[in-house]
């Protein structure tokens, strides 16, 4: 088969599967995605810059595929919420999530919410298109390393919610439970403010909570001092 014929057939198949909705709060990402998929022969590309408008666009146009980021602003759960709502409205919708987090727990939660695939935002164009094509065809897609780590987690994880958190996240969670603000936590752990916000969003994703208040409640419900801070003020790493 010639390269030209293969491209033509791939584009025809793409058109037959319907449009794609991309949801991301970065205009450059939206523009780049549109350019990529139009080259692949997708005729209908819908865009949204936040979760609310993303659901509205989906509700109106019902595209067959949704590609969504997971984090919007400081809300680490927005992408999961959108995935669940889309699948509730149209169970056959094929969803690919992409994220800056390479954490297998987060990837597992994405699949539990109803997505078919998960890919990192810093992946190569060729890998992203491979993931997108797999999801559009109704196949699951996970990077090999993340898939392996999810399998390991399934074998060895205990069922404590805190088993999902790494050492840095446990430190931040403990400090939240002590009533510290993001700014205070950043100072205590020698981090920048955005890193604290980003890590807190990742924790909310892992633990499946919808608000900072719920996260603090989890921190307060855990026995003992799990902060890793001998005097509550000096980081170990």
UniProtKB/TrEMBL annotation:
Annotated ranges, domain HTH luxR-type: 158-223
Residue numbers of 4-aspartylphosphate PTMs: 69
Stretch forming the signal peptide: none
GO biological process, alphabetically ordered: phosphorelay signal transduction system; regulation of DNA-templated transcription
Domain named Response regulatory: residues: 19-136
Domain of life, source organism: Bacteria
SMART domains named in the record: HTH_LUXR, REC
Keywords: DNA-binding, Phosphoprotein
CDD domains: LuxR_C_like, REC_NarL-like
Pfam families given in the database record: GerE, Response_reg
One GO MF term: DNA binding
Classification via InterPro entries: CheY-like_superfamily, NreC/VraR/RcsB-like_REC, Sig_transdc_resp-reg_C-effctor, Sig_transdc_resp-reg_receiver, Tscrpt_reg_LuxR_C, WalR-like, WH-like_DNA-bd_sf
Alphabetical list of SUPFAM superfamilies matching this protein: C-terminal effector domain of the bipartite response regulators (SSF46894), CheY-like (SSF52172)
Record's protein name: DNA-binding response regulator, NarL/FixJ family, contains REC and HTH domains
């Amino acid at each position: 088969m010639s390269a030209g014929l293969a491209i033509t057939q791939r584009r025809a198949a793409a058109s037959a599967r319907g449009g794609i909705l991309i949801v991301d709060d970065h205009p450059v990402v939206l523009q780049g995605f549109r350019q990529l998929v139009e080259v692949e022969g997708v005729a209908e590309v819908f865009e949204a810059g936040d979760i609310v408008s993303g659901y509205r666009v989906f509700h109106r146009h019902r595209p067959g595929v949704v590609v969504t980021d997971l984090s919007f602003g400081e809300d680490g759960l927005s992408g999961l919420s959108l995935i669940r709502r889309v699948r509730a409205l149209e169970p056959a919708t094929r969803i690919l999530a992409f994220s800056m987090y390479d954490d297998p727990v987060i990837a597992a939660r994405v699949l539990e919410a109803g997505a078919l695939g998960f890919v990192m935002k810093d992946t190569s164009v060729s890998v992203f298109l491979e993931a997108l094509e797999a999801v559009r065809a109704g196949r699951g897609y996970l990077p090999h390393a993340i898939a392996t780590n999810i399998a390991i987690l399934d074998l060895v994880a205990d069922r404590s919610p805190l088993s999902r958190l790494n050492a840095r996240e446990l430190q931040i969670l403990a400090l939240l439970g002590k009533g510290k603000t993001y700014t205070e936590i950043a100072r205590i752990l020698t981090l920048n403010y955005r890193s604290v916000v980003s890590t807190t969003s990742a924790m909310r994703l892992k633990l499946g909570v919808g608000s900072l208040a719920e996260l603090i409640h989890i921190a307060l419900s855990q026995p003992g001092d799990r902060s890793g801070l001998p005097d509550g003020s000096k980081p170990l790493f």
